[in-house]
Design brief:
Structural class: mainly alpha
Radius of gyration: 25 Å
Number of domains: 2
Number of helices: 21
Largest sheet: 3 strands, antiparallel
Distance between the termini: 37 Å
Shape: globular
Helix content: 55-70%
Strand order of the largest sheet: 1-2-3
Number of strands: 3
Length: about 425
């Protein structure tokens, strides 16, 4: 899912009533009005919830809400849709609905890009106050692009891959911070899409055939929508099945893997866990991953400055520049069964005490504490990667990893202990 935000409403504490002095007319009114306002405050949001989410929605219902002029309605509809797509295989594999979403993303992006260029042209011609106001007015449109992209990433067919790929690769159409955010959200959606495509293969054959037939009908048309349908159809079946170039995913991943922004490189390495490509593309992408596996973290100073400007109460940091990029790339290489994966890096990732030192939560006051969650995910990811590497390359000698995996199997963390035991059992199988 794209970046999440939470908000809390703080109501003033009610004032106590005098115990002796009779209440005035205003106080009597307050006695009746306060409960009424409380009821209204509870009932209206509840009614709104049922209006938005009550009962099963049709694809058309979602589209109506996503087109609503009220940005709050659009946001709630997109949030609900993204969650629904993760459990509703029929909706997630609906070609017409997926293409409708892709069209809306393209149209919303075009409108927003035009507005961004207009705002950029006004620099120096308007007061700072006016520019800030116009910039704030663009926020709902920017967010709508992110919401729709997130929904496309939750589909099980790649009808939105071309739009997401272009979005992840496009630079210079907005203020740098906004453009980077848009790109990494699109890249994250592509990673999710790559993972969700596995669900299509698990559908019953009758459903798969129906989806492919509907994609074929859409592909027979004209225009960009038909091109998206053809690209998705070719990726799912036929001589081009599994080829990334038709979707533009290979170019997007390569563009982000070479970007100066380290966060884009980090997510590109992560996304390559789910997009393998055909034989020729695999070799090229493994070379990209091998380069990311020795990334030095160049550009992290810019990310540090951005975090400082945001003024977050607590941030997750790494003591070693480029560490997350290298780890993501190493896991991706291992899961591919690549000969280029470095076992010494996997061994390092499996060192639980070391990962507690590597990943830290730093507060505004400078105090630091171990980032237990990130450390745990790092070790667990390495364990799973080792098991997958052994499955794909059983002939590779992984004996040097055995001792450190055995140490994790005696961890005080039950989840890591269980994962390590599963990995040890996997290594016993030939």
């Amino acid at each position: 899912m794209p970046a999440e935000a939470s908000c809390a409403a703080h109501d003033p504490q009610p004032k106590g009533l005098p115990s002796v002095v009779p209440p005035s007319g205003k106080e009597i009114a307050r006695l009746f009005l306060t409960p009424l306002l409380i009821v209204i405050g509870l009932v209206i949001p509840l009614l709104g919830f049922f209006w938005l989410f009550g009962g099963a929605w049709t694809p058309e219902d979602y589209l109506v809400k996503l087109d609503d002029p009220n940005s709050d309605v659009r946001w709630r509809a997109a949030e609900y849709l993204a969650q629904t797509l993760l459990r509703d295989d029929n909706l997630a594999s609906n070609p017409k609905f997926g293409l409708d979403l892709a069209q809306r993303l393209q149209e919303s992006w075009d409108r927003n890009a035009h507005a961004e260029r207009g705002l950029a042209n006004k620099q120096g011609q308007q007061s700072r106050t006016e520019l800030v106001r116009e910039n704030q007015a663009l926020e709902p449109g920017r967010d709508h692009v992110l919401y729709l992209g997130s929904c496309l990433g939750s589909l099980t067919i790649p009808v939105g891959a071309r739009v997401l790929s272009r979005l992840a690769s496009t630079t210079g159409e907005a203020e740098p911070g906004i453009a980077i955010r848009r790109r990494w959200q699109a890249l994250w959606a592509l990673a999710n899409l790559g993972d969700n495509l596995k669900r299509f293969q698990r559908l019953i054959s009758a459903r798969q055939e129906m989806v492919l037939a509907e994609l074929g009908a859409e592909a027979a048309g004209a225009g960009e929508r038909a091109e998206w349908a053809r690209a998705a159809l070719n990726y799912l079946e036929g001589p081009q099945a599994g080829r990334l170039s038709g979707l533009g995913v290979d170019k997007a991943l390569l563009s982000c893997a070479q970007d100066r922004n380290p966060f884009l490189r980090e997510i590109a390495a992560f996304a390559l866990n789910f997009w393998e490509g055909d034989t020729s593309e695999r070799a090229k992408l493994e070379q990209v991953l091998a380069k990311l596996a020795v990334d030095g973290g160049q550009g992290e100073e810019g990310v540090t400055e951005l975090r400082a400007e945001e003024g977050t109460a607590q941030e997750s940091i790494t003591r070693v520049p480029g560490l997350k990029i290298r780890y993501n790339a190493t896991v991706a290489l291992a899961r591919r069964g690549s000969d280029l994966v470095r076992l010494d890096v996997l061994q390092e990732m499996l060192d639980e005490p070391l990962q507690r030192q590597n990943f830290v939560l730093r507060g505004r006051n400078g105090e630091e504490a171990a980032d237990e969650a990130t450390a745990q995910v790092t070790v667990a990811s390495a364990l799973q990667a080792v098991a997958e590497l052994h499955r794909k390359k059983p002939q590779r000698d992984l004996a040097k990893l055995g001792l450190v995996i055995d140490e994790v199997a005696h961890s005080k963390n039950p989840a890591l202990q269980a994962e390590a035991m599963r990995t040890l059992k996997a290594l016993e199988r030939n």
